[in-house]
């Protein structure tokens, strides 16, 4: 295992800057997820760590070694790709042991290591089968086993679950998390799937336009996004946004949204008073909105546009003035399109963003006795 450190790493393709002077430290034994939309630079960053792309500037360290100019074979890494890349003419055992044979490891040691890796991935009963006889999930397990059998310092994964169906992805996420807990190898995992990122990562590095826009634990990235981009990218459904005008009222502050007024918790008062008369973006997640089956004094009046029963919950699309919000509520009673409801936003879960920059306003620490509004 080893720490990975990137110092001012930059990668360009012609005039296109894929990675912009990235500084990043990945701790020894950490599972770090690089998350972002297509074209954000996450895979290029991974390939620079692997040595499959040569950075134009900056340095890369694995452990105490500067590996910036080293080829992949000398970096102590193993990689799992989006495609399974298993050899169809080889058995599972031969596929897993291929790298060891290239290193001229003794046959008995290869057999021992292959059996141990297969047991970890729970494919030890498949060692004599060929890839054509395996499911997609089993093939991906073979690819992971082939990587970990090399006992690398660093394990790099480039969207390894994207070719699997939803159920297999769910199963493989649990398997990968268990595997990391057991082997503890420093792991960098690239994905555009925020559910994978939230469930797998010790930390998440959210990327946009070749830069890391937020790096933190999954719960922090979800609950306290650094910008409207992060808030809108993380979460299913993504965070709701409302434009609001700040109105100072003596000792309190209100947020005026169209014809409605939101009372905000006292923890925001000092920060918002400085923005009196300005427009801010209010963010709130679907599960932090309480639905009342009918208009309630003090709540936002909303009209149900669409109701989606999802088994454990009901996802509503509602209209509040000119804004459309997503709201998660109890599965029953089922609400119908056109029905009027009242919405109460959990005050301490409001997130505020600067309208011009999209950056989050720092979340104040609420007093211990304060409740939601």
Task: Summarize this structure as a short list of keywords or feature phrases.
single chain, 373 residues, alpha+beta, Rossmann fold, OB fold (Dihydrolipoamide Acetyltransferase, E2P), 2 domains, 6-stranded mixed β-sheet, 5-stranded antiparallel β-sheet, 20 strands, 34% strand
Written account of the structure:
- The chain is of the alpha+beta class.
- It folds into 2 domains: 4-229, 3-Layer(aba) Sandwich (Rossmann fold), CATH 3.40.50; 240-354, OB fold (Dihydrolipoamide Acetyltransferase, E2P).
- Helices cover 24% and strands 34% of the residues.
- The protein contains 10 helices and 20 strands.
- The strands form 4 sheets. It has a 6-stranded mixed sheet, with helices on both faces. A 5-stranded antiparallel sheet has the order 13-12-11-14-20. A 5-stranded antiparallel sheet has the order 15-19-16-17-18, with no helix packed on it.
- Helix 6 links the parallel strand 7 (154-158) and strand 8.
- Helix 4 (107-120) crosses helix 5 (136-148).
- It starts with a strand and ends in a 19-residue tail after the last strand.
């Amino acid at each position: 295992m080893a720490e990975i450190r990137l110092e001012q790493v930059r990668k360009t393709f012609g005039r296109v800057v894929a990675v912009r002077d990235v500084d990043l430290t990945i701790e020894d034994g950490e599972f770090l997820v690089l998350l972002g939309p297509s074209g954000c630079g996450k895979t290029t960053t991974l390939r620079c760590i692997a040595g499959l792309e040569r950075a134009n500037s900056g340095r890369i360290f694995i452990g105490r070694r500067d590996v910036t100019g080293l080829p992949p074979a000398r970096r102590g890494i193993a990689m799992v790709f989006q495609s399974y890349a298993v050899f169809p003419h080889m058995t599972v055992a031969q596929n897993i042991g291929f790298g060891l044979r290239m290193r001229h490891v003794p046959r008995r040691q290869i057999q021992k290591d292959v059996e141990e890796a297969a047991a970890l991935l729970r494919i030890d009963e498949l060692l004599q089968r060929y890839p054509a006889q395996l499911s997609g999930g089993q093939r991906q397990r073979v690819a992971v086993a082939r990587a970990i059998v090399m006992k690398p310092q660093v394990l790099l994964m480039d969207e390894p679950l994207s070719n699997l169906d939803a159920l297999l992805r769910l199963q493989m996420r649990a398997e990968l998390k268990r595997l990391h807990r057991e082997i503890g190898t420093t792991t960098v995992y690239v994905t555009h799937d925020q559910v994978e990122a939230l469930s797998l990562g010790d930390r998440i590095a959210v990327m946009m336009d070749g830069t890391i826009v937020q790096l933190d634990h999954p719960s922090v990235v979800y609950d306290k996004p650094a910008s409207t981009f992060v808030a809108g990218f993380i979460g299913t459904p993504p965070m709701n946004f409302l434009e609001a005008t700040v109105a100072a009222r003596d000792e309190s502050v209100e947020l005026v949204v169209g014809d409605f007024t939101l009372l905000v918790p006292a923890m925001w008062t000092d920060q918002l008073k400085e923005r009196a008369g300005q427009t801010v973006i209010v963010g709130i997640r679907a599960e932090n909105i309480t639905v009342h089956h009918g208009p309630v004094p003090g709540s936002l009046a909303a009209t149900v546009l669409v109701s989606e029963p999802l088994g454990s919950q009901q996802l509503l699309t509602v209209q509040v003035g000119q804004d459309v919000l997503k709201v998660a509520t109890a599965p029953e009673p089922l609400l119908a399109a056109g029905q009027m409801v009242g919405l109460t936003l959990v005050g301490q879960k409001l997130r505020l963003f600067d309208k011009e920059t999209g950056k989050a306003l720092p979340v104040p620490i609420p007093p211990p006795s304060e409740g939601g509004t």
